[in-house]
Write a structure and sequence with these properties.
This protein is mainly alpha-helical and about 150 residues long. It has a two-stranded antiparallel ribbon with strand order 1-2. It is about 35% helix and about 5% strand. The radius of gyration is 54 Å and the shape is elongated.
């Protein structure tokens, strides 16, 4: 838009309102006498000035309180409990290991039986085309049953 064609707006000017300072009532000064008068010390600096002030005692740490003695029986009970838990955990692991080893050996036996049975089946069912091999003839077995009459 061209500056000559802009609509006129009314401008409002806001003046800030000053905030009054807070009213401070000074606390009454009550002189307090120290329980003892500290000694005044003066120190002469290397440039000749004298500094005078109160000597401040070094802050001493509080004495360390002695730890209560632990009874020997409590230590023995705690160590016995830890040992018992270690033995129980070891037995649990040993039992799990034995069960897994037993299952593994059982799987190996089954695998050997399947492989050996398959090898026998291949030998029996294969034709006599192999020279020097053993030929096995299977005859049909006839089973006679005894019939009891009552």
């Amino acid at each position: 838009m061209h500056p000559n064609h802009t609509p006129q707006r009314s401008v409002e000017v806001h003046q800030p309102t000053p905030i009054p300072p807070p009213v401070v009532h000074p606390a009454p000064v009550v002189p307090v006498q120290p329980s003892h008068v500290p000694a005044v010390a003066s120190v002469i600096l290397p440039d000749g000035r004298v500094v005078t002030g109160y000597a401040i005692d070094a802050v001493r740490p509080e004495p360390v309180t002695a730890k209560p003695a632990v009874s020997r029986a409590a230590v023995n009970v705690a160590l016995g409990g830890v040992g018992f838990l270690a033995v129980c955990g070891g037995l649990l692991l040993l039992t799990s290991f034995i069960a897994a080893l037993t299952a593994f050996i059982g799987q190996l036996i089954i695998l050997a039986a399947v492989i050996f049975g398959g090898w026998i089946a291949v030998q029996v069912l294969s034709g006599s085309g192999h020279k020097g091999g053993t030929t096995v003839h299977i005859r049909k077995a006839v089973i006679k049953r005894n019939h009891f009459h009552g």
